[in-house]
Predict the 3D structure of the following.
Amino acid sequence: DKLQIDGGNILIAMFRVDESHAVYLLNEQGVNRYDLVRYISHGGSGYEQQEKSTSIAKTDTQTQEGAKDPLSEFCTNLVKKARDGKLDPLIGRESEIDRTIHILARRRKNNPIFVGDAGVGKTAIAEGLALR
């Protein structure tokens, strides 16, 4: 009876695939299908407090070991690069940038996703957005 598929549905469905890399990684992080279904169906009530204390303990341990902040380790600040003039201008992709801005401005479902083969310009569109 659901008219919409969300991220939770996809995560739960991934557990049905045998020998999935995604399921392997989730299991390595201590996430199993039962916990995921319980968390999604109950909105995380009762589960969040336990999860927060576990993640705080992990963060303290990682900080003590000298681990980097995941955001700075895995992400690039494109706006800062654009301000510093380190990005090339985007030419001929105005419609994609306009569509991305339109999606970002929506009240709901405002997460644009750039999908495509390597080299088609996904990063260039994100950089062009940062330049605006």
